[in-house]
Amino acid sequence: LFDLNESGDAKIDEFSESITVGGWIRSIRDSKTFGFISISDGTCFKTLQIVYDDTLPNFKDISKLNVGAAIIVSGRLVLTPGAKQPFEIQADEVMVEGNSTSDYPLQKKRHSFEYLRTIPHLRARTNTFQATFRVRSLIAYAIHKFFQERGFVYVHTPIITGSDCEGAGEMFQVTTLNVDELLKGNNKSAEDVEKELSYEDDFFEKKTSLTVSGQLDGETYAQAFKKIYTFGPTFRAENSNTTRHAAEFWMIEPEISYADLEDDMELAEDMIKYIIEYVLDNAKDEMEFFNSFVDKGLLERLNHVKDSDFGRVTYTEAIDILKEHNDEFTYKVSWGCDLQTEHERYLTETVFKKPIFVTDYPKDIKAFYMKLNDDEKTVAAMDCLVPGIGEIIGGSQREDDYDKLIKRMKELGLDENEYKFYLDLRKYGSTRHAGFGLGFERCVMYLTGMSNIRDVIPYPRTVGSLV
Ligand code: 4AD
Ligand code: MG
Fold first, then answer.
1. Average pLDDT over residues 409-435
2. Family, per the entry (predicted)?
3. Which-ligand-closest: CA of 213?
C-alpha cells in the first residue's frame, strides 16, 4: 500500500482515507467491546491486523466468525509505531463474504508438513506455503525472463509421445484400451484379454506414453531457431520414494546450436545465478522467512553462490576423490558406477562446498544421444550438483555425427524408425549443439531450503500417492 519511511514518522493523516481489503481470517480474538482479526489477502506475504469495536452494528456477528472465513473490511489505515506490525486497519465496516465452519483444519498453531500434505487444497493458506508458491511463481517468471532476454524461443513440446528420450523405460503409458470393458460379459481372464489387445486398436494406433523429456523435439527446433527452451511438465514412473523424486515434475530444457559442452555449462551457471538474484530482489519477505524458519544460512549461501564460480570436476576425478572415502558410503564407488545421491552430496557439500559441474561420464550410464568423447569411453555430459540436494541439472553436448549416432542406437537396440526425425537432423545441416534439463522442483527446493519435493509442487504425485 505504501512504503513506511525508515524513521516511521509518516503522518497518520496521510492515510486517513478509507481503504477496503478482502482476505481470509488467520486468527480472531475479541473482548467485550472490541476485537482483533488478522487476515491474509494473498497479495503479499504479511498478514494485516484489523481492529473492530462495538460501534459496528454487526459487532456480535463478527466476533462469532471462524478462522478461515472470507471477509471484506473497510476502514482507516493507522500507523502503530512500537507494535509488532507497522500499521493496522481500524474497521468502519466488516462484511462477511463467506464464513468458515469451526472444523477448519488450519487453526492458529503449527501444523507438520506431513499433515499439510493431506490437505493440499488448503495448505497454500499457511505462511510456509504462501512463501513457497509465490517463490515458485517468481522462479518460473525469472526463468522465462532469463531466456527471453537472451533471444531464446519458447517451444511447446508434446506431452504425449512415441519415443523414450532417456531410454530408462520409466514411461507412463497412454491408452484408451479398456481392459474392464473387454472383460465385461465374458469369462476370459485379464491375461487372455491382454493378449487380445493390440496397439492397432488404440487411439494413436501405436504405443504411446507421457513424455519424460522434451529434449528430442526441442533439438529439432534448435536446428531452426538456434536457441530454444522448453518449460513444461514431464512424467517418470520411477520407483524412487525419495524427497527428490516426483512422478510428475516440471522441467526447463534449453537447447543451443553452434555450441559445445563448455557453452552449455556457462549457460546453466548464468541461469542459476540469474534466478537467485531475481528471487533475492523480488521476494525479500519470503526469503527472510525461509532463512529464519526453514533453512538457517540460506541467504548467506545463496548470496555467496551468486558471486562465485561453480566448481568443475570430471567424473573420473570425482571417482578418485570418492574412492578414498568409500568406507563412509552405503554404495561403494568404482569407475563405471552411477553416482548416488550420497556421493553427489558428498562432492558438493563436503569436498567443494558449492555448486559443481561433474563432466564426462561413462557412456554406459548415460543416454544414447550424448556426444562420444575421443577416449570412446566417456561422453560430453554434465550434471550440476548443489549442496542439500545433489543433481538439479543434467545436460550434454549431443552426438551430431550421423554414423556415430546410429551405431550407438544399434548397440542399445533402439528402433531407428521411431527416431527417423531425430536422425534427419544429422543429415540436413547438422551442427554442434548442446542443452540441459533443469528440474524445476529441485530448483525451487534449492532456493527456498524446503527439503521435500512434495512441499514445493501444489499437488504432488509420487510413487504410491496421489492426493
Ligand atoms: O538428468 P535428466 O534425466 O535429463 C534429461 O531429461 C535430459 N533430457 C535433459 C536435457 O539434456 N535436455 O533430468 C533433468 C533434471 C534432473 O537433473 C533433475 O533435476 C530433474 O530433471 N528430475 C527430476 N525431478 C523430480 N523428480 C524426478 N523424478 C526427476 N527426474 C529428473
Ligand atoms: Mg540426470
1. 94
2. Belongs to the class-II aminoacyl-tRNA synthetase family.
3. 1
Cell of 126: 499457511
The model's pTM:
0.94
Residue ID of nearest Cα to ligand 1 atom 1: 394
Give phi and psi for 43, each to the nearest 5.
-90, -15
Q: Are 345 and 387 within 8 A, CB to CB?
A: yes
CA pair distance 236, 464, nearest whole angstrom: 13
Tell me which of 442, 443, 444, 457 to substitute to probe ligand 1's pocket, judged by most ligand atoms within 8 Å of the beta carbon.
Answer: 442
Q: Which helix (H) or strand (E) holds 52?
A: strand 48-53
| Interface confidence: ipTM more than 0.90 | yes
pLDDT per position as a tens digit, 170-228? 999 999 887 777 777 667 777 777 777 788 889 999 889 999 999 999 999 999 999 99
Nearest CA to ligand 1 atom 15: 439
Mean pLDDT value across residues 279-286:
97
- Ligand in closest contact with the CA of 222: 1
- The number of helices, as runs of H, and strands, as runs of E, in the chain is 14, 18
Looking at ligand 1, which atom is closest to the CA of residue 236?
Answer: 28
pLDDT digits (tens, 9 = 90+) for 354-406: 999 999 999 999 999 999 999 999 999 999 999 999 999 999 999 999 999 99
Exposed (0-12), middle (13-18) or buried (19+): which is 418, by Cβ within 10 Å? middle
**Pick from 199, 213, 230, 205: nearest CA to 168:** 213
